[in-house]
Amino acid sequence: MKSLVPCLVLLLFLSCSEPSPYGCYADLALENGKGDVSGRYFMHETSIRVGLDDGLEITASGEVCWDYEDNCSGPDPQGPYWGLYARIGEEGIPFSVGRSYSVNAARDSGTLYLMVPEGEDPYTCFEDVHADNYGHFFVTVTVTTAQ
């Protein structure tokens, strides 16, 4: 019985330290600029860096449902929230992506964040608001480096 105690302690520690299945922030691994943006997280930090004056193109499809009553939306915004948004840099100004976003010269530089806002203040995360969301947006991101 003594030999099981360390295993039980380790199991308890691992189960308590796992990330929440919903919340404010998640890392988003994009393979060849493609990936899934979960509706269960507010902000998704990508590994994509956008430089000042770089071209940026984002396309999105899919559906996120905002509660268990099937209030669902595609990536096009429904007012100041729902849908797909993005920002460039930690302090960048959020902008609507919808099904398609394209700009020839980015106004900011930094890491690209993809957002699924919801609630009274669409640019602030309230962790438990995303608990009943489900679905995802499939995105493709292309950055063209400024010459």
Which key features would you list for this structure?
147 residues; Jelly Rolls; five-stranded antiparallel β-sheet; 1 helix
Molecular structure report:
The protein has 147 residues and is mainly β. It has one domain: Jelly Rolls, CATH 2.60.120.430. It contains one helix and ten strands, in the order H-E-E-E-E-E-E-E-E-E-E.
Question: What overall form do the CA principal axes indicate?
Answer: globular
CATH architecture: Sandwich
Unreliable segments of 5+ consecutive residues: 4-19
Class from helix and strand fractions: mainly beta
Average predicted local confidence, pLDDT: 82
Radius of gyration: 18 Å
What distance separates the N and C termini? 67 Å
- Beta content: 35-45%
Topology at a glance:
Blueprint: H1 4-17, E1 23-28, E2 34-38, E3 41-50, E4 55-65, E5 72-73, E6 85-88, E7 95-96, E8 100-103, E9 110-115, E10 134-144
Parallel strand pairs: 1-3
Antiparallel strand pairs: 2-10, 3-9, 4-5, 4-8, 4-10, 6-7, 6-9
Summarize the structure.
By secondary structure, the chain is mainly beta. It has one helix at residues 4-17, and strands at 23-28, 34-38, 41-50, 55-65, 72-73, 85-88, 95-96, 100-103, 110-115, 134-144.
